[in-house]
Amino acid sequence: MEALYIFIMLKPFSIIYMGEKVYVLGAGSTKYGKLNESIIEIALNASRDAIDSAGITPKDVKAGYISNVFGVADKQVHMAPVIMSNLGIPDVPGLTIESACGSGSVMFREAFANVSAGFYDCVLALGVEKVTHTSTVESTTLFSYCSDFFYEGGNGASFPGLFGSMARAYLATYDATEEDLARVAVKNHENGLLNPKAHVKKKITVEDVLKSPVVASPLKLYDCCPFSDGASAVILCNEEFAKKSGNPYIEVIGSGRGASPASVQSRKDITTIPSTVEASRQAYKMANLTPKDIDFVEVHDCFTIAELIDIEDLGFFPKGSAAQAVREGRTRLNGEISVNPSGGLKSKGHPIGATGVGQVVEVFEQLTNRAGERTVKDAEIAMTHNFGATGASAAVHIFKKIK
Amino acid sequence: MGESKSKSLSPRELFIKYAKNGEILLNQCTKCNNIVLETVYYCDKCFAKTFKQMPYKGKGKVVTYTIQSVVPEGFEDANSYAWVIFKLDDCDVNVSGFLPDISSPSDLPIGTKIKVVDFHDNHGLILQKD
């Protein structure tokens, strides 16, 4: 198989590679929430659903890409060979990738790159996490290890705390209030009610959010996503493989990666996430699109403040105006731009190794007319955005419906 | 300023040593004069790796902070505290640390003067209102 190698130098150290066209042919996901099965079982359930959805068998899978962060909490690391063996393909190479809460999208990018480069015609991209069997203190501690620990976790910062500090800086700088943060949660819970696989299916009001207990000021309980178990998987393939399958598929038309200083203290502006800006710039460039072309987006709303920052950094709204956009309902389902039609991390849930892949599952279901009540009308172009920790790593992808 | 580097201590150990004396140890790039924290190995402007050490008075003003109700392991023994990012006085460097005995945002307006007083194995860089 001949891959077309084109390297475009955009700026020093920034290369966009365009090889073979890459498609998502199948997708599967467990429910997100508190699951009783082992981490390997939930991973296999999602993988089986993705393989069935693609209309293939495991023997078609030439490589497995697995994203996971806290396998050790369920007594399993070196997960890829275990998963491949239980899929009946122990001779197929697998790789486990960790990039904190952005593991799923960062792993998806590597799977995409390998198919695009022509190394494989069909791969499994699977994300999985299981943490709800640990106590809140244990989970909070495990997550704090994803920070720049010497300066953050080691000085007493939890992840809600890190985003709480970003929220305080944002609210002090721009026209935004704690009520605006609450509106993000209310909107995402409305969307999550329409998602049968969402973790937190509960209608809430702005007042409910404001009255919920403070977790890390100014963030309250309903400003925070839950700790979730869950697994999501997709099948990526090249054009020849997709066309032969006879099944519906969507095209990956943009892919970008970005990075930020690991610690929040090292960022010149605490109210923006540089990795998001750079990853989206690359993805827009590769797809030859602008924010106006995106019909809906799944963004990384681990905390309500993150969604406000995300939709500015991705170019949907000017800096400092996201709160107003949310206030005006412009980000609601079938608004000006539907943000998190799945319910997002906030309502759908956040099994951190799976989250980035789960976003792709949502896009696949939307663009192949399987999203039911939460369908974004007439959507043809969609974006996923997922970052690790406070945005130290990020990946953005753009997808196109195949008519 | 310009103190010779103690060969027996790692950069983090050096950072901690100075923090225990109320100072933040910075590095000034010998090639481009960029200032970074002691714990950074290469200049992020010119990528040089030789620095002149600059012990800096650990005083500054609060840029942002949070007060948490659920804390990571190791901090259960601490009463209500703030995790704070502060900007060093007269220097464009932010540092974060642990500020004990803060229970309400009214205790800590943004811009409050802060100083480094210690470094604990369990709680990291210890701050105090100045």
Question: What's the pLDDT, averaged over the residues of chain A?
Answer: 95
Helices and strands of chain B, in order, run as HEEEEEEEE
Largest sheet of chain A: 10 strands, mixed
- What would you report as the Rg of chain B, rounded to the nearest angstrom? 16 Å
What is the strand content of chain A?
A: 15-25%
- The CATH architecture of the domain at 6-133 and 227-245 in chain A comes to 3-Layer(aba) Sandwich
Structural class of chain B: mainly beta
What is the overall silhouette of chain A? globular
Number of helices of chain A: 13
Q: Summarize the main sheet of chain B.
A: 5 strands, antiparallel
Order of the strands making up the biggest sheet of chain B: 6-5-4-7-8
Total number of strands of chain B: 8
CATH-level-4 superfamily name of the domain at 6-133 and 227-245 in chain A:
Thiolase/Chalcone synthase
Greatest interface by residues involved: A-B, 36 and 30 residues
Average pLDDT value of chain B? 93
What CATH calls the topology of the domain at 6-133 and 227-245 in chain A is Peroxisomal Thiolase, Chain A, domain 1
- The residue fraction in helices of chain A comes out at 25-40%
Distance between the termini of chain B: 23 Å
Secondary-structure element pattern of chain A, one letter each: EEEHEHEHEHHHHEEEHEHEHHEHHEE
Features:
heterodimer; A: 403 residues; alpha/beta; Peroxisomal Thiolase, Chain A, domain 1; 10-stranded mixed beta sheet; two-stranded antiparallel ribbon; 34% helix; disordered N terminus; B: 130 residues; mainly beta; 2 domains; 5-stranded antiparallel beta sheet; 3-stranded antiparallel beta sheet; 8 strands; globular
